[in-house]
């Protein structure tokens, strides 16, 4: 198996320019920032997630129609939100990579796709667990479920594509194009329950006007969503940090090998 060649875009320090995106593109600055940010972020994320899970599982009431099955919602809904928000972040990173050549964008996109695939898989799995007692089937090919399945395949496709080339930059370009094309699926997921005749219920939290659920369920749901979002952010930042250090190590090893060759 051939070793992937380092990207032709080295992670050299980028001069900070006021008002420029490149101000946040310096790998050294990113590593220093995340070194201070990640420990309290992990702690706060675990605290909020634990509080939300306890609130949802032990103190929120059962639904008058769904009974205890409604507790699946406290995982399913945040995973659905994260799957869509994460893919929007992937599209933004891809745009930064293609247009502005943001030095960290390729690494962020590369490390984001496995995490996004994970939360989308959890969304599909918990949706199936909820669908069996509610609809009498594990799966129905309605518009919402099918479009989320397409989103899962887009995550998997991006994760595989960026790792399919020996030259990382070529893989990053191909993955960025796929991510931007796949972004058209996001509005389909969002409004599929309005555009098509589906089994999936319409929005209960984000609809205009009063939410379609009691506050005793809404507050723990929002707490769980915040906790899972913080965990997702911490996971992605940790993966990007590891990706930056891994690429720096490969570049240092390549420079050392070239120095030895020239000395010989």
From TrEMBL:
The chain crosses the membrane at residues 37-59, 79-100, 112-131, 143-162, 174-193, 217-240. Residues 47-200 form the Cytochrome c assembly protein domain. Required for the export of heme to the periplasm for the biogenesis of c-type cytochromes. Belongs to the CcmC/CycZ/HelC family. Pfam families: Cytochrom_C_asm. This is Heme exporter protein C. It is found in: Cell inner membrane; Membrane. Keywords: Cell inner membrane, Cell membrane, Cytochrome c-type biogenesis, Membrane, Transmembrane, Transmembrane helix, Transport. The keyword Repeat does not apply. The gene is ccmC. It is a multi-pass membrane protein. NCBIfam families: ccmC (TIGR01191). It comes from Teichococcus globiformis. Its main location: membrane.
